[in-house]
Amino acid sequence: MVLSVGKRWNDGCLTQMKAPTLKTSPAALPFFQGARLFIIFALVIAFGAAWTWFNRLPEIIATPTLAQPHTGFAAPNFALSSTTAETFTLADLKGKVVLVNFWAAWCPSCRAEMPAIDAAYRANKDVGFVVLAVDQMESAEMVKTFGTKYNLSFPLLLDSDGAINRQYLVSALPTSFFIDRRGVIRDMIIGGSMSREFVEGKIKALLEEKE
After folding, report:
1. Contacts of 196 by beta carbon, 8 Å cutoff, 6+ apart
2. DSSP string computed for 12-45
3. CA 125 to chain centre
4. Which of 49-58, 105-114, 154-163, 172-181 has the lowest mean pLDDT?
5. Domains of the chain
6. How many Cβ atoms from other residues are within 10 Å of residue 138's Cβ?
7. Beta bridge partners of 92
8. d(CA 65, CA 165)
9. Beta-bridge partners for 24
10. How confident is the model at residue 1 (pLDDT cuts 50, 70, 90)?
11. pLDDT digit string (tens) for 115-137?
């Protein structure tokens, strides 16, 4: 007699065969659980990488002739008045190495680095180094008092409405831009307190370059 799969003849009766069951050793359970966690983790990583790739920002290609507040681009031009009522225009300073430093009197890191910046300025101003310290929306009297307290010799500029801070996309203080003789941003430093040695290290090569 031909029997269907899964059935057998037993003592004259047709009975249903039980399907074999696979028993997992208790010792193997941690392995399978670990493998399952690894697969889930790998899938999460793969999904995250794919999401990052599809939503990536377009690459910014440095263009020295295009004004953008980024390294490798021409520094956006601006004109601001100082605490001595003198107007400074960035474009007029081509041929010099310029440090544009965004700061505020309430900022502890700004206060800490101002004497160091001034020391670097005093030592290098005769070879073409200029510092423009752009205050962030404080009164002229407060800025002037600050300059007197720290005996600062470089111009303190008043960005009363914050327009230049916004133009340079300043999100933290202090923020410093090192600009070469051609007017191109060569480096940007966000936060921290720069030492005199650090500033002079940044401008040394720029001062040696030709326009």
Report:
1. 116, 117, 119, 120, 123
2. TEEEEPPPP-PPPPGGGHHHHHHHHHHHHHHHHH
3. 29
4. 49-58
5. 92-208 (3.40.30.10)
6. 17
7. none
8. 21
9. none
10. very low
11. 999 999 999 999 999 999 999 99
